[in-house]
Design a protein that fits this description.
five-stranded mixed β-sheet; globular; alpha+beta; 41% helix; Beta Polymerase, domain 2; single chain
């Protein structure tokens, strides 16, 4: 039995998209959630992705994780995430259950952190693409600044709906990862 006191997964609150300063505590929160999932399902590898995984990158403040499962492991992962308290998406255009995203929140050092856990097959091209995007932004300060500028432009244009905001970033992301992903 693990002696680590893992945070309790709470209800997810849907908020308007913003572009807030990077919070280095997100790395610790991501590690705690990754360990929580892996401690219960060791076959799953959890990686921190998204803006909160990129030091200095402004973003919505949502901690994105990809939970990578082996062939045949999706249902077991979904069951575990449900048992831990993660919720299905309730907004329009949810990810399909064949490639789900689960939502939750945790309180860490008195602050609420929202969580997105993307269940992705370990051998899926999407996992490679997400890593590539994260790593390119970690390595290239100018690219990171351009990404933050694009996010600010989107919000300044009046787009604050989280789904519309994510869609508006697609062209930038595709430009970074290239036409062949």
């Amino acid at each position: 039995m693990s002696m680590i006191n893992y945070p309790v997964i709470g209800k997810y609150r849907e908020l308007e998209a913003i572009c807030q300063e990077y919070d280095p505590r997100c790395v610790t929160v991501a590690q705690l959630i990754a360990e929580l999932i892996s401690s219960r399902l060791p076959s799953v590898i959890v990686e921190h992705i998204g803006s909160t995984a990129i030091p200095g990158c402004y973003g919505k403040g949502v901690i994105d994780l990809m939970a990578l499962y082996s062939e045949g492991g999706l249902e077991q992962l979904k069951t575990l995430l449900d048992e831990l308290g993660f919720q299905k998406q309730s907004t329009r255009d949810p990810f399909p259950e064949s490639r789900p995203m689960r939502l939750g929140s945790v309180v860490y050092q008195g602050l609420e952190y929202r969580l997105h856990v993307h269940a992705i097959a370990a051998d899926a091209e999407e996992a490679r693409v997400l890593r590539k995007f994260r790593d390119r932004l970690r390595e290239d300060a100018e690219l990171r600044e351009a990404y933050v500028a694009r996010k600010r432009e989107i919000i300044a244009s009046g787009i604050t709906d989280s789904v519309d905001y994510s869609n508006a970033k697609d062209e930038f992301i595709k430009g970074v990862i290239g036409p062949n992903k």
